[in-house]
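Quiz preparation item.
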């Protein structure tokens, strides 16, 4: 019988989590084209409308993590994520939608949301509802990679797509400093509570899974754009 593998040190686990950056959606061909100025207005509108479906489900997945977590201090801190979305974040996303030429009605009725987006987002919410809370928290660690990506997005949009109303960037301007704080908290949380090799590997797998979810959304948007 093989001996169990030793647990990773905090530094080793942190390194393994950071290494998932290679799977993050900033490398997806759609995002590469988007940041290079190669997307049409219709493709940008499709991205915003489909990303809305993800945005509006964040509070549900965060509530699932809160409900499963036995630690009061963590629950209280995690509730801030729900507050951000429900107390301005979703409104800021609708402002972005307006800035790219979408009406609130067509975003809210989700007529532009693609099947692939629905499957990916619904699966992510189900994951957070059915897996241990620590895995749900680990999946959120895509926030380790998102501040720079969002900063690059704002710069790219202002450079290449001057037809987008500047006021539409409020979501990103408000979210970047928040996600920087959230990522530090969540990383420490996972490093502290993933104490067995099984938990550590599950945390790494959860983050890899979340990267796959995000890329699946872009797969759907990219395919829909090229199929027209």
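Solution:
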């Amino acid at each position: 019988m093989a001996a169990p593998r030793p647990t990773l040190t905090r530094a080793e686990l942190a390194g393994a989590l950071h290494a998932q950056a290679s799977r993050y959606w900033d490398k997806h061909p759609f995002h590469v084209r988007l940041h290079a100025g190669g997307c049409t207005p219709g493709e940008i509108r499709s991205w915003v409308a489909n990303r809305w479906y993800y945005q509006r489900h964040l509070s549900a997945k965060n509530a699932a993590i809160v409900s499963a977590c036995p630690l009061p201090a963590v629950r209280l801190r995690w509730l801030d994520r729900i507050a951000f979305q429900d107390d301005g974040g979703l409104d800021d996303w609708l402002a972005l939608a307006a800035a790219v030429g979408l009406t609130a009605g067509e975003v809210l009725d989700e007529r532009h949301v693609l099947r692939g987006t629905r499957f990916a987002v619904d699966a992510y919410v189900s994951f957070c509802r059915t897996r241990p809370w620590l895995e749900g928290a680990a999946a959120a660690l895509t926030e380790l990679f998102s501040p720079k990506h969002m900063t690059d997005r704002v710069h790219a949009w202002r450079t290449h797509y001057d037809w987008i109303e500047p006021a539409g960037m409020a979501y990103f301007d408000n979210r970047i400093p928040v996600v920087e704080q959230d990522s530090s908290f969540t990383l420490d949380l996972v490093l502290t509570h993933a104490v067995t090799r099984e938990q550590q590997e599950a945390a790494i797998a959860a983050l890899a899974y979340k990267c796959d979810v995000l890329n699946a959304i872009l797969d759907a948007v990219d395919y829909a754009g090229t199929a027209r």
